[in-house]
Amino acid sequence: MRLGLNVGYLVGSDDPQDLLRLTRHAESLDYAVVWAAEAYGSDSPTLLAWLAAQTSTIDVGSAVMQIPGRTPAMTAMTAASLDRLSGGRFRLGLGVSGPQVSEGWHGVRFSAPLARTREYVEIVRLALGRRTVAYEGAHYRLPLPEGPGKALKLMITPPRAHVPLYVAAVGPKNLELAGEVADGWLAVFFAPAYAVEQLAHLATGRARVGLTLDGFDVVPAVPLVVGADPRACADPVRGYAALYLGGMGSREKNFYNQLAVRMGYGDAAAQVQDLFLGRRHRDAMAAVPYEFIDETSLLGDQDRIAAGLGRLAAAGVTTCSVVPHGDTVEEKLHALTVAAEALHQAGV
After folding, report:
1. Rounded Cα distance, 64 and 102, in Å
2. What tens-digit pLDDT sequence spans the chain (348 residues)?
3. Residue 118 in contact with residue 94, Cβ under 8 Å?
4. Residue spans per domain, the chain
5. How many CA atoms within 13 Å lie on the side-chain side of 347?
6. Backbone region of residue 199 per phi and psi (left: phi > 0; alpha: psi in -120 to 50; beta: other values)
7. CA-to-CA distance for 299 and 297, rounded, in angstroms?
8. Which of 61, 174, 179, 330 is the most exposed place for a label (fewest CB within 10 A)?
């Protein structure tokens, strides 16, 4: 198992230089990859290009580039450009986002997400393979019929014949699709005790195309908080957990809340959602069970983090992408060091 770093996305208070310091420190510790995200603020490709230009060995990956925000051809162009500029260090992570962002921000209906993702990936693969892109699907048609458009081929050649492609997936059917069409899975709220069920869905998708999970990259984003008291370490993660369980979607359609239900936290997930949607955000944070945070995070001192990394590796994780928490960038840098030492201690 390798370590990765997830820097998320820029918010108004962030100093981009802090993200660069974290990335360079991770590179010095032999972390495999740095991931950047996007919601409706900073975009991931711009941040990744900036980080790639100031590093030399660490991979740069999008976790994710939003499918509703770009045409598949534009995504292929961006992926090829980033792979070329980084010297073959780019990993393309894709996700459909959710109805609020897709329809509210991008103006794209959140309909048939599985079928749309499948077609999108197929077109991206065609383009990155430098084949002439002609495609007739239910959601995408290239070129458009009865018009002046013509089938085109990507002008830029990526340095690698195959740019690794990942899909962010939460639900069972989406996990099967990720196993079928992608090279890796971007996971959230990954709990070793629940992983068997999720990996089974991935394996079902792999089997459809005659493959197994061998060589398939399982990449959860895992909050990392270093400290003597694990329960105190859980507190910085509560805001993130409450936002996703309570507010990242409507009451009827919140994929993260539904995941918590499948993990056995149904009552708590309902309570967090009620409180969050009722704008009682602090109460929602307090209502997130410590056990849920502990199962899906790395909390405590180096020995405890080493044990957690061992459980993640045993559960099938191949790249553990940590999200370091701390009041200062120095605390986050220290957390990255502790994680690297803990991985060596765990011997996985």
Report:
1. 14
2. 999 999 999 887 789 999 999 999 999 999 999 999 999 999 999 999 999 999 999 999 999 999 999 999 999 999 999 999 999 999 999 999 988 899 999 999 999 999 999 999 999 999 999 999 999 999 999 999 999 999 999 999 999 989 999 999 999 999 999 999 999 999 999 999 999 999 999 999 999 999 999 999 999 999 999 999 999 999 999 999 999 999 888 888 899 999 999 999 999 999 999 999 999 999 999 999 999 999 999 999 999 999 999 999 999 999 999 999 999 999 999 999 999 999 999 999
3. no
4. 2-224+301-346, 228-297
5. 0
6. alpha
7. 6
8. 330
| Residue 118 near residue 140, CB atoms below 8 Å | no
Q: The CATH number of 2-224+301-346 is which of 3.20.20.30, 3.40.190.10, 2.115.10.20, 3.40.30.10?
A: 3.20.20.30
Pairing of strands 135-136, 141-142: antiparallel
Query: Letter for the amino acid at 118?
Result: R
Tokens 């794209």 sit on residue: 108
